[in-house]
User: Which sequence fits this backbone?
């Protein structure tokens, strides 16, 4: 009885877009940021605390979940939503990126990849069809095609070859997805092509002809300057269909997010708010703050007295400094939730500004506030 | 305007006692279990989640807090309650136990101890007077005297000497406490004497003559058989004044708690529910359950479908198994809160049973349920 996956574009303001998409587990307002729940958990946070930050969708990692606890096991337990007690939308990646970054890649050919598990050394096969099957077993609201993620640096020829392979895998992914028909669920294709605008646009155009529910941009934020990334984003979104969501994978800092929304991106995921939170760094409207710095040791002020998030208004900088210096788990927990809440506040601010037709003003004011930096020391 | 610290004994049932004490930060129902907040945090848990387990009081560690972030610093930041965002009662220990267990003890004499910090190697002095001053700076509702905690094994002569020293330090602690008069706050003396009933009773009697707001039993649960511990508890509580709370320090398992309440103990603290939770162990009415065991990998049942605590009813054993095997922080967080909630449920059950005059039945039924063990495998 589910309605089909759909994306509604409510308003544009320059290239920035305000919309929403509908999944079997509910609606998501865009532009949206998805916290990363790698191993069926956003690290350290109870799902109700993730929800309380304002998150409407989280990301799960196919690579990690297929190795442990296993996709068939999660399916037998009722699917990923039930397993991790997150009844809202979930997007899963296809595993391609982690196969490249975490495993000893043993063999990649037209059929797929065979790799050595980083957990137990077992040899594991992943094909476009298996990646779709796994995501269906997990019960993902949004599945991603398997793509080939190159290790960089790479030559233009290598980038072109991998991009073409990813396009062929995109076609196979779509056929496999159709054979696992799940009402209302979506499949996204992934644009590749490195830093070559021509390859990127070719990839986007072929994917559009194949036809997906949404289009991701992969292979960015891998070390290139931000201006290069944003240029590729702009040149890619310009050839993607307006009526489908665009997802910039693995991005990024607050600066990246606001810059990419300005260039037509609707969705993001990134480990930065949680990973940096585990290392004593807070994201705030004053910019990034390193709480391990001794200047916070006696500072009784909260991170941001005007934050809509309770923890950011409640705990003193001195306490967060103490927890981070003492490597206390609660430091990671509090800063992860504070950072995720800041990201969601930023996204909500962008959505409101686009609706009001004043995105450029919002972007300039927000960037100016970051540039001014943290509160002066006490 | 605080009322003085007071303890009200509402009901006895055999040696078991039902009461409450009143502190500047609120009332505590006894028998009570105090979660351990070593470094100004119950590891991994937000204070509201600690409170939601039913905890009415937590313990803070003088040794840890004096070294980092420092007692004067916490005082300048408004005290420990504000620092850790726990507006309810706090008991602090005196540091004696951690000086013995964590530091290179350099020198112990009549004046006090000088030890090397386990954090940075600095030499630090702790005397009975300084221990009281630190606890006043922290703002403890209940302070503990400094005592000498022996490394075991020790001869009877050594135990007697340390016990006598602890009594002299008890007198000095009381004088120091009176000079830091804080309305409504309490000071507890600590009974020492190893496994020697005569020394234990002498210690208890001298402490009672000095006069404290409550009496702790220290130096137990350090490896002796449970029956030895419970015998010493019984022989010690029998000579302590009925109108003051008795606190068994650092104890223990659920078995220990119910056995010690049966022998007249009113208060406990222990790291077991949180420490074991971080290692994949759950305390339940079915006994202790090791969730890292493979038999839980496909078990969709919650730990205890009838638990009053939401997390124990919600998350599957398979999920808790997965989190523990994957060393995910959320496994530690969920099992710590589930375990603390079980401890509080157990204490609440004991309180209710004592009030109803059926403590022996409750104890027998609870122990029988533990002995039956976990649910049969699916």
Assistant:
């Amino acid at each position: 009885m589910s309605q089909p996956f759909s994306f509604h574009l409510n308003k544009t303001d320059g290239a920035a877009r305000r919309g929403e998409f509908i999944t079997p587990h509910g609606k998501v307002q865009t532009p949206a940021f998805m916290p990363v729940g790698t191993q069926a958990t956003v690290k350290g946070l109870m799902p109700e605390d993730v929800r309380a930050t304002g998150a409407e969708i989280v990301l799960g990692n196919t690579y990690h979940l297929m190795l442990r606890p296993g996709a068939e096991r999660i399916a037998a337990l009722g699917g990923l939503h039930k397993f991790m007690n997150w009844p809202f939308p979930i997007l899963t990646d296809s595993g391609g990126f982690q196969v490249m970054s975490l495993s000893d890649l043993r063999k990649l050919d037209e059929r797929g990849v065979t790799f050595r598990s980083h957990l137990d050394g077992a040899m594991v096969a992943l094909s476009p069809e298996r990646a779709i099957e796994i995501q269906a077993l997990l019960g993902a609201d949004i599945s991603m095609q398997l793509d080939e993620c190159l290790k960089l640096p790479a030559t233009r020829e290598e980038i072109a070859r991998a991009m073409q392979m990813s396009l062929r895998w995109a076609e196979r992914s779509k056929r496999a997805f159709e054979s696992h028909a799940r009402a209302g669920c979506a499949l996204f294709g992934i644009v590749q092509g490195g830093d070559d605008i021509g390859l990127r646009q070719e990839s986007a155009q072929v994917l559009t002809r194949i036809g997906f529910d949404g289009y991701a941009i992969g292979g960015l934020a891998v070390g290139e300057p931000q201006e290069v990334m944003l240029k590729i984003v702009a040149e890619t979104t310009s050839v993607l269909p307006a009526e489908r969501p665009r997802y910039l994978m693995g991005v990024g800092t607050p600066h990246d997010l606001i810059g990419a929304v300005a260039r037509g991106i609707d969705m993001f995921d990134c480990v930065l708010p949680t990973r940096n939170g585990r290392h004593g760094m807070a994201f705030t409207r004053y910019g990034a703050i390193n709480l391990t710095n001794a200047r916070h040791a006696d500072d009784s002020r909260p991170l941001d007295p005007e934050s809509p998030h309770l923890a950011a208004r409640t705990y003193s900088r001195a306490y967060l400094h103490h927890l981070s210096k003492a490597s206390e788990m609660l430091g990671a927990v509090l800063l992860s939730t504070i950072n995720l809440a800041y990201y969601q506040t930023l996204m909500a601010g962008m959505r409101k500004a686009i609706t009001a037709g004043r995105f450029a003003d919002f972007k300039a004011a927000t960037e100016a506030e970051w540039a001014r930096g943290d509160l002066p020391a006490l």
In short: Chain A touches chain B through 37 residues (CB under 8 Å).
